[in-house]
Amino acid sequence: MSANDTAITVSELSKTYRLNVAGAPVNRITDAVINKARHPLRRTRYEYFDAIKDVSFDVPWGEALGIVGRNGAGKSTLLKLLTRITSPTKGSIDLGGRVGSLLEVGTGFHPELTGRENVYLNGALLGMSRKEIRRRFDDIVEFSGVSKFLDTQVKRYSSGMYVRLAFSVAAHLETEILAIDEVLAVGDAEFQAKSLAKMRDVAKDGRTVLYVSHQIQTVTALCTSAIYLDKGRLVYHGSVDGALETYRSSFEKFQIEQSDPTKRSGTGQLRLAGVQVLEPQQAPADEKLIELELPASSHLVGDYFVSCHINDINGSTIVQCDSRAVGAWFSPDRAHRPVLRIDNLWLKPGTYTVDAFVCQAGILDSWEGAAVFEVLPSSPYPELTSEEALSAGIVLSDFHYEVS
Amino acid sequence: MSRTIITPPRGVGLPPWRELWEAREVLWRFGSRDIVLRYRQTAIGVAWVILQPLVSAGIFSIIFGSVAKLPSGGVPYFIFSFAGLLGWNLVNGIVGRSSGSLVANQALVSKVFFPRLLIPLATMLSVLLDFAVAFVLLVILLVVFHINPGWPLLLLPVWMSLAILLAMGVGIAAASLMVKYRDVAYVLPWLMQILLYATPIAYSLSAVPANLLWLFTLNPLTWLMEAFRWSLIGLAAPPLWEIGALVLASVAVFLGGVLVFQKMERTFADVI
């Protein structure tokens, strides 16, 4: 092997999507013809959106590369380009071997087919030859643990069995490069650990793993290096810790801007001096304590109120805690240090931001991203369940079934 | 180890045949999936394959043979229309099943990479199975009615191949256009319905009025039907020019379809 024998070399890769500006996209022939007839000379105007912009990097053999970034940063597009699902607009990708993809478990599984038939179908789709599948068949079945139901149609499988079988097929791919999109987020805890170990073995064999995830902890557990994408550009390529650092600090950039009171909106008659989440890392069911620092103000007459919003990572507000609603008003004559205490709000694991507002008749101070806290990935429920028992919904809650 | 270099697509070229060949397992798996799915959870299962051509040929022979009293070249009308339908079903089946195949498998197209041309190509396997069953039925009928088509029967694989090329070309082009324009799904069955009556399938070319004959002889499917009936039930051979034109048309339509597919394919994952 020569020194420049990399598993993947990406150079100046760009992917531009073309969005129609004028009205809805044309997807009827009649519309296309009518448009052309009405405006024979006008070229359709498009808006261009760079999902990936001038990205270059090398991945050596035997490396597990994590691809991290915020929603819409281009992670999945990059993986789609690397796995040839979609073609680039500019630049090139040089792959040192076959690429197998584990994009979304179960794609290519047909509910009407039996487990056995699906293993063969899915294996073929993922690029295995019949000989390869036959050779690995027993391993696949054993790893999945559904051998008893191999000749049952998968529509009769529980979702856990379905996912386990699908993952097993993909995990036994013998391609030189393996691309994984979020699939480790499936199955129960035990199967997840088993899958993660399997993926680590793949990298140990000298093959190369590409891994996209929003779950930072699995990136840390699996990857040996990482790249960080921001708005389609490659911002960082190096160690996993470095990438996660970049991830966090970019998140903080906006926050730092906001911490300068002169850059915040609001009349400024009274500005918050500080907002702290007393427990920046917490379990889903923990009570949330947020302390506000409110200085005294001579520019203000009459009591004012505050409001805190808790937003999820995508910026949607989960809860608004307006002090008016609970009858808390503050006098501007002296400083206050109120602590907002939220009981019984069970948040899903993830990062949350706190926006704090000071208001009277209008908004005095609006501090977006005033504080950040992380809800750790643990389940507050007494039983271990598979991921899909928790995946729907925005929050968790303290519920139980009264069985009669 | 061979390296793969991915660059932005330029121009329209022929598909990478080597890659298609390497992924032939997909073709086979898709084909067998279609066959298995069609008859799983059906009460009489494979009997449908036998029933369908018999009933349609029966209806056709009642309408065209008994009601309209059209000529059938001296062969029992049922056999005549059965042979015609055998060829027609091959073409119609391939066009119908392949044209919808990409949209039906959109989850795969947008999530896994494999040579996508295999999706429409694979649909021909289940159509060929239907063909084989109907062919066996026809052989039985020929024996029962003492009809011997003679050596032209040996040419049947040639006509089949041409029918497949012709139908596949249309099907592949339609499938790739349907990814972007779903209108194709509505227009195509209607066109095929018109073709079924515009082609001498259940009636013979000799029943066509002389002043319209040129229109019928321009239809490549007419040539194909003539060739099928020559090989299957021993009717007169089509003129040589028709055979030559059929070969040219089939190959041209197939290549044309593949080129349309190649052009449309780059944006499949983005628009499907």
Order of helices and strands of chain B: EHHHHHHHHHHHHH
Chain pair sharing the greatest interface: A-B, 45 and 37 residues
Shape of chain A: globular
* Sheet having the most strands of chain A: 6 strands, mixed
Query: How much helix, percentage-wise, in residues of chain B?
Result: over 70%
Describe, in plain words, how this protein is organized in 3D.
The complex is a heterodimer of chains A (404) and B (272). Chain A folds into 2 domains: 8-250, Rossmann fold, CATH 3.40.50.300; 262-375, Coagulation Factor XIII, Chain A, domain 1, CATH 2.70.50.60. Chain A is globular. With 404 residues, chain A is an alpha/beta fold. Chain A has helices at 29-38, 75-82, 115-125, 130-144, 159-171, 189-204, 216-222, 240-259; strands spanning 8-20, 46-59, 64-69, 90-95, 99-103, 177-181, 208-212, 225-230, 233-238, 274-277, 281-282, 288-293, 305-311, 317-322, 339-342, 346-347, 350-359, 363-375, 395-396. Chain A is built from 8 helices and 19 strands. In chain A, 36% of the residues are buried. By secondary structure, chain B is mainly α. Chain B has one domain. Chain B is built from 13 helices and 1 strand, in the order βααααααααααααα. The longest helix of chain B has 27 residues, at 118-144. The interface between A and B is large, with 45 and 37 residues. Strand 4 of chain A pairs antiparallel with strand 1 of chain B, so a sheet runs across the interface.
Summary keywords:
heterodimer, A: 404 residues, alpha/beta, Rossmann fold, Coagulation Factor XIII, Chain A, domain 1, 2 domains, 6-stranded mixed sheet, 5-stranded mixed sheet, 8 helices, B: 272 residues, mainly alpha, 13 helices
Topology:
The complex is a heterodimer of chains A (404) and B (272).
Chain A: E1 8-20, H1 29-38, E2 46-59, E3 64-69, H2 75-82, E4 90-95, E5 99-103, H3 115-125, H4 130-144, H5 159-171, E6 177-181, H6 189-204, E7 208-212, H7 216-222, E8 225-230, E9 233-238, H8 240-259, E10 274-277, E11 281-282, E12 288-293, E13 305-311, E14 317-322, E15 339-342, E16 346-347, E17 350-359, E18 363-375, E19 395-396
Parallel strand pairs in A: 3-7, 3-8, 5-6, 6-7, 11-18
Antiparallel strand pairs in A: 1-2, 1-4, 8-9, 10-12, 12-15, 13-14, 13-17, 16-19, 17-18
Helix pairs in contact in A: 3-4, 3-5, 4-5, 5-6
Chain B: E1 4-6, H1 17-22, H2 24-39, H3 47-67, H4 77-99, H5 101-104, H6 106-111, H7 118-144, H8 156-180, H9 184-198, H10 213-217, H11 220-233, H12 240-265, H13 268-271
Helix pairs in contact in B: 2-7, 3-4, 3-7, 4-7, 4-8, 4-9, 4-11, 8-11, 8-12, 11-12
